[in-house]
Amino acid sequence: MEKMSVSMPAEVAELVRSQAADAGVPVSAWVTAAAREKATAAAAAAAAAVAADELLAGAEALHGPATAADRAWVAEVLASAGITARVAG
What we know:
Elements: H1 10-23, H2 27-63, H3 68-80
């Protein structure tokens, strides 16, 4: 286990303490779970963006350059899946 010190505004610290207490877990466990959830979501979004870029590159290799509308559609499909990603182009 690695010990870490973080700083946050007082109102956020109070909210964290309150949520941890409501969940019946120590603050460190609550913060660890929240950080894991956020980091996992960020990693998934980054992987989805790479996959979308690779998919688009493959489509461009077969069909020519993607239009702005094509890129907007890819971004919309990702957004509908809850993934916010910038589609290269």
